[in-house]
Amino acid sequence: MFEHGGVDRLPKRIILVRPGESEGNRDGSTYSTVPDHQIALTQQGISQARHAGTQIRQVVSASDSLPETWKVYFYVSPYTRTRSSLREIARSFPRKCVIGVREECRIREQDFGNFQITEDMKVIKDVRQRFGRFFYRFPEGESAADVYDRVSSFLESLWRDIDMNRLNHDPSTDLNLIIVSHGLASRVFLMKWFKWTVEQFEYLHNFDNCEFRVMQLGSGGEYSLAVHHSDEEMQQWGLSPDMIAGQKWRAYAPRGANMEKLPWYLDGFLDHVSEDGDDDNDDDKNIENNVS
Q1: Tens-digit pLDDT profile for the chain (292 aa)?
Q2: How many CA atoms lie within 13 A of 36 on its CB side?
Q3: Which residues contact 123 (CB under 8 A, 6 or more apart)?
Q4: Which residues share a beta bridge with 14?
Q5: Which of 7, 11, 14, 76 matches a 20 to 30 Å C-alpha distance to 102?
């Protein structure tokens, strides 16, 4: 993925976190009177974020508890609930371990269209389910495909930040990027990173509040969910057997390996194509014979 910089410059982990429970999660009518970006966490959401911070601290310090051996850098959506979640998560980290924080507008929540009337949204979400979650665009809002485009732009910037060492990472320490975003933006991030198809995206379940996914460098230099997470967890998130197989392959794949060339991956697109093309030629001959 990062082709220019050395492996020692890469973050050891990229961790995606959904914010804690918000007032909108508890009462959907909140969206009809409060702008989405201003909706606050509930007390339960604050507790969830603090607990997530404890859990993430355990993940990043698992190999060595000394703060001198690992660092964290935060990216956060500008929404009130994500910034509040970040504050609570960060309580678990000594200041000397935090090398930076950046607000990043491109990882904000999907735009559902200004104030959201509860009765209208029920109808709209029913239509989305029938149309397809990825391509359906909310009236006056965005589709998941729109979010994909801006998250892709963010990833390009993220790659440059790492490649040019804009994060001021000391290679002698493990760097952990913690991205406090939203459920759909995080799923789209994973889709873009791992080159999942639209059909595979549709399988995915949303993160729970303050649930997180850990993308960790495998032994060969590629990122994978399978380094930290079990098959059972990935199944619960909606990953298909092929998607899980891809994650397990990436956990040991050499850096820069191209999964698109693997036979089982190609079969998802080219399942009717023979190895030598003879089947196609036979079909052409049969057509010619029928015509003559």
Answers
A1: 454 445 667 999 999 999 999 999 999 999 999 999 999 999 999 999 999 999 999 999 986 666 678 999 999 999 999 999 999 999 999 999 999 999 999 999 999 988 888 888 889 989 998 999 899 999 989 999 999 999 999 999 999 999 888 888 888 899 999 999 999 999 999 999 999 999 999 999 999 999 999 999 999 999 999 999 999 999 999 999 999 999 999 999 998 877 776 666 777 777 766 666 665 555 555 555 555 5
A2: 14
A3: none
A4: 177, 215
A5: 7
